[in-house]
Amino acid sequence: MTNSWKKYILWFAQEHLDFRVAEFNSIIKLFGLKHRKLNDNTLKPFWIVEFANEESAIKFASRSVSLRSIYELWGHSNNLKSFHEKLQDSIKTKENLMDPYIQKSFKIVVETYNKHISQKEKVEKIETLEYLPFQGEVDLKTPQTEWCYIEFYGLDPTAVPSEPDDILFGRLVANGQRDLIKELSLKKRKFIGNTSMDAQLSLLMVNQALVNNGDLVLDPFVGTGSLLVSAAKFGGYVLGADIDFMMLHGRSRPSRITQKVRERDERVRANLEQYGCGDRYIDVIISDFSNPLWRQGVEFDAIITDPPYGIRESTEKVESKTTSKQNTRSKDMPHYPSTSHYSLQQLYVDLLQFSAHHLKVGGRLVCWLPYHRDDYTSEMIPQHSSLVLVGNSEQPLSGLTSRRLLTYEKRDINAPDSAQLSYQLSNSYDFRDRYFNNAPESRTERRMRKAEQREIGRIEALKRGKVIIDNKEAKNNLNKSRFQ
Ligand SMILES: C[S@@+](CC[C@H](N)C(=O)[O-])C[C@H]1O[C@@H](n2cnc3c(N)ncnc32)[C@H](O)[C@@H]1O
């Protein structure tokens, strides 16, 4: 690729903001893209980035899920007058750059951020650009080139300025991968469960994990395989494991309220086939993560996972301790091993230790850590001397709880031992306990309070002379009488 540095407008969706920079850095690293970032406020939906060539811009767009579109920058200013002056100036000075587009059919799109304008106003804005030397036909359906005029009115909807903070104009180079979010939507997914990860976050995780064509990817808490679907979509060969036999065999209770029983072929494999990447499926196995079955020397390019939090699924491990109880089982009876609670602390210790051993150097572990917001400190993040934390993005779950997407990269050092692992969370911390018991008001208390409120309302209504009808028939008669 030859270098011909140009500036581009990167237009991001204003969603999952805390993941934007992490995803940008990951894709840059994945493809080794040469770039220079020109603006600092990463919360703005429009970034100006210089890429060494257009192929780099297109490569970036081929992976980014946060990106809506990318435009070659032709004009930018903080006020309208200087914007038009600069754009006219750049057309004159960079005349031969405009040449390839002059005869082509075209379309100009107007976008105003944080301010709604009418179609008529949009047309008026296009008319202010009449000095553009386009000679081709206007084609709104299938133009050969598409241009975008953008006015950015800040991020605060309660303080919209009268004049835009930024005015930008550029040529559409490529769209990001937002369409994949719809394509992989859980709504139409063959096999889903209560904790299936939504398509957008799964794709962001796979980008964080730098999954590339031909990579070997493992999800050790695979559930319905949502993360494997996204990894396979970007070319990974995928493997999963889960302790739940019923889930992996598609025998657990259906999660869709409209569905009574699971279809016979509901499986992780069917999900991959649904999206045309069945050839990327290796297998899923029933396995307890606390007792990993992988032999020494097996290496993965990436480990992506959403471990159980104990809220919508149980956190269990197979108990291996021998008890002193007499064994009353006869040979022909099936053996159901007993299980015990798998604490989140222990699970993370195991996960980091496992990743330190089984990731290739430079490979990434991407996983979620849930916590109660009041408890969060940076010391809470599990650390391992063989793994460098390269991403830490928050997704609020409720007023009280959040989870963080943690990205670790395996360092180039010799095999670690457990002494190098540090986990700051005190042993008494249990997210599940905190979630159910330590909220200012427990679920039961809330139910009781609501019932009391309803009772007070009922007594008040009776005092006002309202007739309370418990009997269904009487209620029907009353309704009928209203229409007679
Ligand atoms: C949050 S869910 C993962 C959901 C998954 N990402 C999906 O999209 O369906 C966590 C999974 O971990 C599994 N699990 C719980 N304890 C486990 C253990 N000790 N070993 C392996 N899997 C376990 C649960 O059965 C559950 O399917």
From TrEMBL:
Pfam families: Tmrp11_N (PF25904), UPF0020 (PF01170)
Region Disordered: start-end pairs: 313-336
Transmembrane segments: none
GO terms for MF: tRNA (guanine(10)-N2)-methyltransferase activity; tRNA binding
EC identifiers of the protein: 2.1.1.214
Domain Ribosomal RNA large subunit methyltransferase K/L-like methyltransferase: 188-318
GO cellular-component term (any): tRNA methyltransferase complex
One of the GO BP terms on file: methylation
Catalysed reaction, written as an equation: guanosine(10) in tRNA + S-adenosyl-L-methionine = N(2)-methylguanosine(10) in tRNA + S-adenosyl-L-homocysteine + H(+)
Domain tRNA (guanine(10)-N(2))-methyltransferase TRMT11 N-terminal: 6-178
Primary subcellular site in the record, as a coarse category: cytoplasm
Keywords: Cytoplasm, Methyltransferase, RNA-binding, S-adenosyl-L-methionine, Transferase, tRNA processing, tRNA-binding
UniProt subcellular location: Cytoplasm
InterPro entries noted in UniProt: DNA_methylase_N6_adenine_CS (IPR002052), RlmKL-like_Mtase (IPR000241), SAM-dependent_MTases_sf (IPR029063), TRMT11 (IPR016691), TRMT11_N (IPR059073)
Extent of Basic and acidic residues compositional bias: 313-322
Assembly behavior: Part of the heterodimeric TRMT11-TRM112 methyltransferase complex; this complex forms an active tRNA methyltransferase, where TRMT112 acts as an activator of the catalytic subunit TRMT11.
Classification via PANTHER family: RNA METHYLASE-RELATED, TRNA (GUANINE(10)-N2)-METHYLTRANSFERASE HOMOLOG
UniProt record similarity statement: Belongs to the class I-like SAM-binding methyltransferase superfamily. TRM11 methyltransferase family.
Function: Catalytic subunit of the TRMT11-TRM112 methyltransferase complex, that specifically mediates the S-adenosyl-L-methionine-dependent N(2)-methylation of guanosine nucleotide at position 10 (m2G10) in tRNAs. This is one of the major tRNA (guanine-N(2))-methyltransferases.
Protein name: tRNA (guanine(10)-N(2))-methyltransferase TRMT11
Species of the source: Bactrocera dorsalis
